[in-house]
Protein backbone atom coordinates (compact mmCIF):
# COMPACT_ATOMS: atom_id res chain seq x y z
CA UNK A 1 0.00 0.00 0.00
CA UNK A 2 1.21 3.49 -0.74
CA UNK A 3 0.40 7.12 -0.11
CA UNK A 4 -0.82 8.66 -3.35
CA UNK A 5 0.55 11.71 -5.13
CA UNK A 6 -2.05 11.39 -7.88
CA UNK A 7 -5.72 12.43 -7.84
CA UNK A 8 -7.86 9.46 -6.86
CA UNK A 9 -11.24 8.76 -8.50
CA UNK A 10 -14.31 8.72 -6.29
CA UNK A 11 -18.07 8.57 -6.56
CA UNK A 12 -20.72 9.87 -4.22
CA UNK A 13 -23.84 7.91 -3.41
CA UNK A 14 -26.52 7.47 -0.79
CA UNK A 15 -29.19 5.14 0.51
CA UNK A 16 -32.12 7.07 2.00
CA UNK A 17 -29.69 10.00 2.37
CA UNK A 18 -27.15 8.04 4.40
CA UNK A 19 -24.35 9.31 2.15
CA UNK A 20 -21.01 7.80 1.25
CA UNK A 21 -17.85 8.61 -0.64
CA UNK A 22 -17.08 5.54 -2.74
CA UNK A 23 -13.40 4.99 -3.48
CA UNK A 24 -12.62 2.24 -5.99
CA UNK A 25 -9.33 0.58 -5.00
CA UNK A 26 -9.67 -2.87 -6.57
CA UNK A 27 -6.06 -3.92 -6.06
CA UNK A 28 -5.79 -2.52 -2.53
CA UNK A 29 -3.07 0.03 -3.33
CA UNK A 30 -4.46 2.93 -1.30
CA UNK A 31 -3.27 3.69 2.23
CA UNK A 32 -6.51 5.23 3.51
CA UNK A 33 -5.68 6.58 6.96
CA UNK A 34 -8.32 7.58 9.53
CA UNK A 35 -7.21 11.22 9.14
CA UNK A 36 -7.69 11.05 5.37
CA UNK A 37 -11.18 9.57 5.79
CA UNK A 38 -12.10 12.37 8.20
CA UNK A 39 -10.84 14.99 5.70
CA UNK A 40 -12.77 13.40 2.82
CA UNK A 41 -15.99 13.21 4.87
CA UNK A 42 -15.72 16.82 6.08
CA UNK A 43 -18.81 18.58 4.68
CA UNK A 44 -17.05 21.92 4.26
CA UNK A 45 -13.41 21.22 3.48
CA UNK A 46 -13.88 17.81 1.88
CA UNK A 47 -16.40 15.97 -0.28
CA UNK A 48 -18.70 15.31 2.67
CA UNK A 49 -20.29 12.06 3.74
CA UNK A 50 -21.42 9.89 6.63
CA UNK A 51 -18.71 7.43 5.69
CA UNK A 52 -16.37 6.00 3.08
CA UNK A 53 -16.86 2.81 1.11
CA UNK A 54 -13.49 1.59 -0.20
CA UNK A 55 -14.11 -0.97 -2.93
CA UNK A 56 -11.39 -3.59 -2.86
CA UNK A 57 -11.06 -7.16 -4.11
CA UNK A 58 -11.19 -9.56 -1.16
CA UNK A 59 -8.03 -11.25 -2.40
CA UNK A 60 -6.16 -7.93 -2.25
CA UNK A 61 -7.21 -7.06 1.31
CA UNK A 62 -5.53 -8.89 4.20
CA UNK A 63 -8.45 -8.03 6.54
CA UNK A 64 -10.89 -9.72 4.14
CA UNK A 65 -9.15 -12.95 3.21
CA UNK A 66 -10.28 -14.96 6.23
CA UNK A 67 -13.92 -13.89 6.11
CA UNK A 68 -14.70 -13.32 2.44
CA UNK A 69 -15.65 -16.87 1.43
CA UNK A 70 -16.98 -16.71 -2.11
CA UNK A 71 -17.26 -12.89 -2.05
CA UNK A 72 -15.04 -11.33 -4.71
CA UNK A 73 -15.45 -7.82 -3.27
CA UNK A 74 -14.81 -6.46 0.21
CA UNK A 75 -16.61 -3.38 1.55
CA UNK A 76 -14.00 -1.51 3.59
CA UNK A 77 -16.42 0.73 5.51
CA UNK A 78 -15.19 3.72 7.54
CA UNK A 79 -17.20 6.15 9.61
CA UNK A 80 -16.88 9.89 9.00
CA UNK A 81 -14.45 10.29 11.90
CA UNK A 82 -12.15 7.69 10.33
CA UNK A 83 -13.10 4.83 12.62
CA UNK A 84 -13.78 1.37 11.26
CA UNK A 85 -17.19 -0.30 11.62
CA UNK A 86 -18.14 -3.92 11.13
CA UNK A 87 -21.15 -3.36 8.94
CA UNK A 88 -23.26 -0.73 7.19
CA UNK A 89 -26.68 -1.75 5.85
CA UNK A 90 -27.20 1.24 3.59
CA UNK A 91 -23.54 1.21 2.63
CA UNK A 92 -23.58 -2.38 1.40
CA UNK A 93 -26.61 -1.62 -0.79
CA UNK A 94 -24.87 1.42 -2.30
CA UNK A 95 -21.65 -0.63 -2.63
CA UNK A 96 -23.47 -3.33 -4.66
CA UNK A 97 -25.18 -0.70 -6.78
CA UNK A 98 -21.76 0.79 -7.56
CA UNK A 99 -20.34 -2.65 -8.50
CA UNK A 100 -23.13 -3.11 -11.01
CA UNK A 101 -22.86 0.47 -12.30
CA UNK A 102 -19.11 -0.02 -12.86
CA UNK A 103 -19.60 -3.37 -14.63
CA UNK A 104 -17.64 -5.16 -11.89
CA UNK A 105 -20.42 -7.72 -11.52
CA UNK A 106 -22.22 -9.18 -14.48
CA UNK A 107 -25.77 -8.14 -15.19
CA UNK A 108 -28.38 -10.73 -16.03
CA UNK A 109 -26.76 -14.13 -15.84
CA UNK A 110 -24.17 -14.20 -13.08
CA UNK A 111 -24.24 -13.04 -9.47
CA UNK A 112 -25.37 -9.43 -9.49
CA UNK A 113 -28.06 -9.90 -12.12
CA UNK A 114 -31.70 -9.12 -11.35
CA UNK A 115 -33.04 -11.52 -8.73
CA UNK A 116 -29.69 -13.17 -7.94
CA UNK A 117 -27.77 -12.77 -4.72
CA UNK A 118 -24.38 -11.09 -4.88
CA UNK A 119 -22.06 -11.92 -1.95
CA UNK A 120 -20.18 -8.94 -0.49
CA UNK A 121 -17.57 -9.36 2.23
CA UNK A 122 -17.78 -7.05 5.22
CA UNK A 123 -16.01 -7.04 8.58
CA UNK A 124 -19.16 -8.66 10.02
CA UNK A 125 -18.95 -11.50 7.47
CA UNK A 126 -20.47 -12.04 4.03
CA UNK A 127 -23.74 -10.28 3.25
CA UNK A 128 -25.80 -11.12 0.14
CA UNK A 129 -27.34 -8.37 -1.96
CA UNK A 130 -30.03 -8.55 -4.65
CA UNK A 131 -31.29 -5.98 -7.14
CA UNK A 132 -35.08 -5.85 -7.03
CA UNK A 133 -37.53 -4.71 -9.67
CA UNK A 134 -38.06 -0.95 -9.53
CA UNK A 135 -34.50 -0.11 -8.51
CA UNK A 136 -34.55 -1.10 -4.85
CA UNK A 137 -31.59 -2.99 -3.45
CA UNK A 138 -32.20 -5.79 -0.94
CA UNK A 139 -29.58 -7.07 1.48
CA UNK A 140 -29.73 -10.21 3.57
CA UNK A 141 -28.47 -8.88 6.88
CA UNK A 142 -28.32 -12.22 8.69
CA UNK A 143 -29.89 -12.50 12.13
CA UNK A 144 -30.09 -10.01 14.98
CA UNK A 145 -28.53 -10.90 18.31
CA UNK A 146 -30.51 -9.88 21.37
CA UNK A 147 -29.68 -10.17 25.07
CA UNK A 148 -31.09 -13.24 26.81
CA UNK A 149 -33.47 -11.42 29.22
CA UNK A 150 -36.90 -10.05 28.19
CA UNK A 151 -36.37 -6.53 29.56
CA UNK A 152 -34.27 -3.70 28.14
CA UNK A 153 -30.97 -3.83 29.97
CA UNK A 154 -29.51 -0.43 29.15
CA UNK A 155 -30.51 3.20 29.49
CA UNK A 156 -30.07 5.96 26.93
CA UNK A 157 -30.01 9.58 28.05
CA UNK A 158 -30.01 12.98 26.34
CA UNK A 159 -29.66 15.86 28.75
CA UNK A 160 -32.11 15.33 31.61
CA UNK A 161 -34.22 12.76 29.78
CA UNK A 162 -33.58 9.04 29.74
CA UNK A 163 -35.24 5.94 28.32
CA UNK A 164 -34.82 2.19 28.66
CA UNK A 165 -33.21 0.75 25.54
CA UNK A 166 -32.87 -2.67 23.97
CA UNK A 167 -29.43 -3.90 22.92
CA UNK A 168 -29.49 -5.28 19.39
CA UNK A 169 -26.43 -6.52 17.55
CA UNK A 170 -26.66 -6.43 13.75
CA UNK A 171 -22.97 -7.15 13.28
CA UNK A 172 -22.51 -3.70 14.79
CA UNK A 173 -23.95 -2.50 18.12
CA UNK A 174 -27.26 -0.70 18.60
CA UNK A 175 -29.31 0.61 21.51
CA UNK A 176 -32.98 1.12 20.59
CA UNK A 177 -35.14 3.44 22.71
CA UNK A 178 -38.88 4.00 22.18
CA UNK A 179 -39.76 7.63 22.85
CA UNK A 180 -42.97 9.68 22.91
CA UNK A 181 -41.85 12.03 20.15
CA UNK A 182 -38.76 12.04 17.91
CA UNK A 183 -38.12 15.61 19.06
CA UNK A 184 -37.57 14.30 22.60
CA UNK A 185 -34.03 13.34 21.60
CA UNK A 186 -33.17 17.01 21.14
CA UNK A 187 -30.54 18.18 18.68
CA UNK A 188 -28.25 15.16 19.00
CA UNK A 189 -25.04 17.12 18.45
CA UNK A 190 -23.36 14.93 21.04
CA UNK A 191 -23.54 11.17 21.46
CA UNK A 192 -26.36 10.15 23.83
CA UNK A 193 -25.13 8.82 27.17
CA UNK A 194 -25.58 5.07 27.48
CA UNK A 195 -25.47 3.22 30.79
CA UNK A 196 -23.89 1.03 31.82
CA UNK A 197 -20.94 2.10 29.67
CA UNK A 198 -19.58 -1.43 29.95
CA UNK A 199 -22.48 -2.67 27.78
CA UNK A 200 -20.82 -1.19 24.70
CA UNK A 201 -17.05 -1.18 25.10
CA UNK A 202 -16.55 -0.22 21.43
CA UNK A 203 -19.26 2.47 21.35
CA UNK A 204 -22.81 2.20 20.05
CA UNK A 205 -25.31 3.49 17.51
CA UNK A 206 -28.42 4.84 19.25
CA UNK A 207 -31.90 4.80 17.69
CA UNK A 208 -34.90 6.78 18.96
CA UNK A 209 -38.18 5.31 17.76
CA UNK A 210 -41.87 6.19 17.63
CA UNK A 211 -44.83 4.12 16.44
CA UNK A 212 -46.52 5.30 13.27
CA UNK A 213 -49.09 2.50 12.95
CA UNK A 214 -49.29 -1.29 12.74
CA UNK A 215 -45.80 -2.59 11.86
CA UNK A 216 -44.80 0.94 10.95
CA UNK A 217 -42.25 2.98 12.93
CA UNK A 218 -40.10 6.07 12.47
CA UNK A 219 -36.61 6.67 13.83
CA UNK A 220 -33.84 9.12 14.41
CA UNK A 221 -30.33 7.81 14.84
CA UNK A 222 -27.06 8.97 16.33
CA UNK A 223 -24.36 6.88 14.69
CA UNK A 224 -21.12 5.92 16.33
CA UNK A 225 -18.37 7.72 14.44
CA UNK A 226 -20.68 9.79 12.25
CA UNK A 227 -23.13 11.71 14.48
CA UNK A 228 -26.80 12.11 13.62
CA UNK A 229 -27.44 10.78 10.12
CA UNK A 230 -30.48 10.76 7.85
CA UNK A 231 -30.70 6.97 7.87
CA UNK A 232 -29.05 3.82 9.17
CA UNK A 233 -29.75 0.42 7.63
CA UNK A 234 -28.45 -1.72 10.47
CA UNK A 235 -30.30 0.67 12.80
CA UNK A 236 -33.56 0.18 10.86
CA UNK A 237 -33.17 -3.60 11.27
CA UNK A 238 -32.44 -3.27 14.98
CA UNK A 239 -35.49 -1.05 15.38
CA UNK A 240 -37.77 -3.42 13.44
CA UNK A 241 -36.72 -6.34 15.64
CA UNK A 242 -37.23 -4.27 18.79
CA UNK A 243 -40.67 -3.12 17.54
CA UNK A 244 -41.66 -6.70 16.69
CA UNK A 245 -40.75 -8.02 20.14
CA UNK A 246 -42.45 -5.06 21.79
CA UNK A 247 -45.60 -5.83 19.78
CA UNK A 248 -45.48 -9.52 20.75
CA UNK A 249 -44.22 -10.70 17.35
CA UNK A 250 -41.54 -13.34 17.04
CA UNK A 251 -41.26 -14.87 13.56
CA UNK A 252 -39.34 -17.89 14.91
CA UNK A 253 -42.27 -18.70 17.19
CA UNK A 254 -45.09 -17.48 14.94
CA UNK A 255 -43.79 -19.25 11.83
CA UNK A 256 -44.41 -16.26 9.59
CA UNK A 257 -42.32 -13.24 8.56
CA UNK A 258 -42.71 -9.89 10.30
CA UNK A 259 -42.56 -7.00 7.83
CA UNK A 260 -41.93 -3.51 9.18
CA UNK A 261 -41.92 -0.19 7.41
CA UNK A 262 -39.24 2.03 8.94
CA UNK A 263 -39.37 5.74 8.16
CA UNK A 264 -36.06 7.52 8.50
CA UNK A 265 -35.41 11.25 8.06
CA UNK A 266 -34.06 10.51 4.56
CA UNK A 267 -36.82 8.23 3.29
CA UNK A 268 -38.31 4.79 3.89
CA UNK A 269 -36.87 1.31 4.39
CA UNK A 270 -38.61 -2.04 4.64
CA UNK A 271 -37.31 -4.67 7.04
CA UNK A 272 -38.49 -8.28 6.96
CA UNK A 273 -37.60 -10.75 9.68
CA UNK A 274 -38.10 -14.38 8.65
CA UNK A 275 -38.88 -17.39 10.88
CA UNK A 276 -35.30 -18.68 10.45
CA UNK A 277 -34.02 -15.41 11.93
CA UNK A 278 -32.77 -13.91 8.67
CA UNK A 279 -33.53 -10.22 8.19
CA UNK A 280 -33.72 -8.45 4.85
CA UNK A 281 -33.38 -4.70 4.37
CA UNK A 282 -34.91 -3.12 1.25
CA UNK A 283 -34.56 0.43 -0.02
CA UNK A 284 -33.12 2.68 -2.69
CA UNK A 285 -29.44 3.10 -3.55
CA UNK A 286 -28.39 6.08 -5.64
CA UNK A 287 -25.18 7.38 -7.20
CA UNK A 288 -25.15 11.16 -7.55
CA UNK A 289 -21.67 12.28 -8.63
CA UNK A 290 -18.17 11.31 -9.53
CA UNK A 291 -14.85 13.11 -9.60
CA UNK A 292 -11.32 13.00 -8.27
CA UNK A 293 -9.89 13.52 -4.80
CA UNK A 294 -6.88 15.82 -4.64
CA UNK A 295 -3.76 14.22 -3.07
CA UNK A 296 -3.87 16.78 -0.24
CA UNK A 297 -7.12 15.22 0.99
CA UNK A 298 -5.54 11.80 1.10
CA UNK A 299 -2.50 13.07 2.99
N1 LIG B 1 -25.12 3.86 8.48
C1 LIG B 1 -24.78 2.49 8.57
C2 LIG B 1 -24.03 2.09 9.83
C3 LIG B 1 -22.60 2.59 9.77
C4 LIG B 1 -21.72 2.09 10.90
C5 LIG B 1 -22.05 2.66 12.23
N2 LIG B 1 -21.87 4.09 12.30
C6 LIG B 1 -21.17 1.97 13.29
O1 LIG B 1 -20.16 2.53 13.73
O2 LIG B 1 -21.52 0.84 13.66
C7 LIG B 1 -25.92 1.57 8.22
O3 LIG B 1 -26.65 1.92 7.26
O4 LIG B 1 -26.06 0.50 8.78
From TrEMBL:
SUPFAM superfamilies: Diaminopimelate epimerase-like. The keyword Cell membrane does not apply. It catalyses: (2S,6S)-2,6-diaminopimelate = meso-2,6-diaminopimelate. Its EC number is 5.1.1.7. PROSITE patterns: DAP_EPIMERASE (PS01326). Pathway: Amino-acid biosynthesis; L-lysine biosynthesis via DAP pathway; DL-2,6-diaminopimelate from LL-2,6-diaminopimelate: step 1/1. The record marks 174, 223 as: Could be important to modulate the pK values of the two catalytic cysteine residues. It comes from the Bacteria. Pfam families: DAP_epimerase. The active site is at 88, 88 (proton donor), 232 (proton acceptor). It is an enzyme of class 5 (isomerase). InterPro entries: DAP_epimerase_AS (IPR018510), DAP_epimerase_DapF (IPR001653). Homodimer. PANTHER family: DIAMINOPIMELATE EPIMERASE, DIAMINOPIMELATE EPIMERASE, CHLOROPLASTIC. Catalyzes the stereoinversion of LL-2,6-diaminopimelate (L,L-DAP) to meso-diaminopimelate (meso-DAP), a precursor of L-lysine and an essential component of the bacterial peptidoglycan. This is Diaminopimelate epimerase.
